[in-house]
Amino acid sequence: MSRPIVAAADAGDLDPDQVRERVKELLARDAEAAFLRRASRDQYEAAREAAPDAVHHRRSGLVVLTRPRSRPCSRTPLPVAVVSAGTADLPVAEEAMVAATTFGLPATLTADVGVAGLHRLLAVRDELDLARLLIVVAGMDGALPSVVARLSSRPVVAVPTSVGYGSSEGGLAALAALLTSGAPGLAVTGIDDGLGAAVLARRLLT
Amino acid sequence: MTAEVDELGFARVDIGRGRRRGHPEAVFCEGKTTPEVVAIAESLMRAGATNVLATRASAETLLALRTAFAGTVVHERARLAVLSPVARRGTGRVEVVCGRPEDEPAAEEAALVAEAMGSRVMRRYDAPVHDPAALPEWLREQDGPEVFIVADGTGGALPTLVSGLVGRMVIALPTSASGELPGRAALLSALNACSPGVVVVNIDNGYGAGYAAHLHNTRGDV
Fold first, then answer.
1. Is the CB of B164 less than 8 angstroms away from the CB of A118?
2. E strands, A38-166, in order
3. Which of A6, A12, A39, B141 has the smallest number of CB atoms closer than 10 Å to its CB?
4. What domain range includes position B26?
5. pLDDT (tens digit, 9 = 90+) per residue, B142-169?
6. Phi and psi dihedrals of B218, rounded to 5?
7. Which residues of B touch A85 (CB under 8 A)?
8. Are A143 and B194 inside 8 Å of each other by CB?
């Protein structure tokens, strides 16, 4: 069996001992990259005892346990553009961005171009076309990824987020909207799964 | 108290609706037999109602209504009949928008209802849903209406997109004309519209959308 691409676990409510155990277990899988997700500062401190190189990204809580790869394979990887609809979606966008970078994929972040003001998106259209793959993060009505998929000819990986009022049902509204958008060439990850989108990018691009 | 209700046995027809609300009760035909629909319509018109709407009517019911009441205007695609129609000048403007042929029956029901109630209605069923970049220009082609109705059966968020480009209220009309989760995704998406100024009616409820649009358009003046 080939080397796994990723090893990841949610920090959840693990106590420091459990965090250390979980981190050891993740590293033992010898994946290209290992992550502890949605970790608090205390959980990060515990993780660092088992993985001295670990880096914590505060907004998303993502802890990168392994050293980022400069180049995961012989070909030069192609760039990924991470696009977020609202500022509230940034934690998920950061996770996708950091994970993509960890896999050695150059990634850019374009924040706050939601379709409530379509001109913001049209203004950065050319910039987005430079990317080989787009990861588009959106909560509420989940509108942005389907619009991006119609504006761009690049593959679009949509990440629905749990941002929204009551009936957004923790992201189910955005997820359902994305699954039925009719936009061609759009793939959808689970809710808040920025890491999942980055892993897909890694599989497709390198 | 004056007789506000006409007892038909199988129905208590709200013949006071026109006095209270300015518009008569509409007859929702699904689940009613054709003779029942005809009897209810007869009761409303006996009480003096005009522009009586029969919604969600089968072809058979539409035919029976046309036969029973002279002057009835029938719209098969919208499954709607207007009984005892009285032409109105048409005030303000309601713009009804959709971008897919599948959404047109619901859009058309909304347009006809607003029109029958007395609104001037503009139908625009060729929104560039496959090319969102063309939407700003497409919307600019028209003078601004008082209110938009946007019918969309997909999760593609056309109501949000339109709302983000205009200064008017958008009534989102989710339709069941989509493959999976018929109407559910469109309804949830519209309820969660990230653009403020989007209000939502139920799936395929063109009647409700048209009624609300007319009230907004005319500020309640009949």
1. yes
2. 55-57, 62-64, 80-84, 107-110, 133-138, 156-160
3. B141
4. 5-83
5. 878 999 999 999 988 999 999 999 999 9
6. -105, 5
7. 194
8. yes
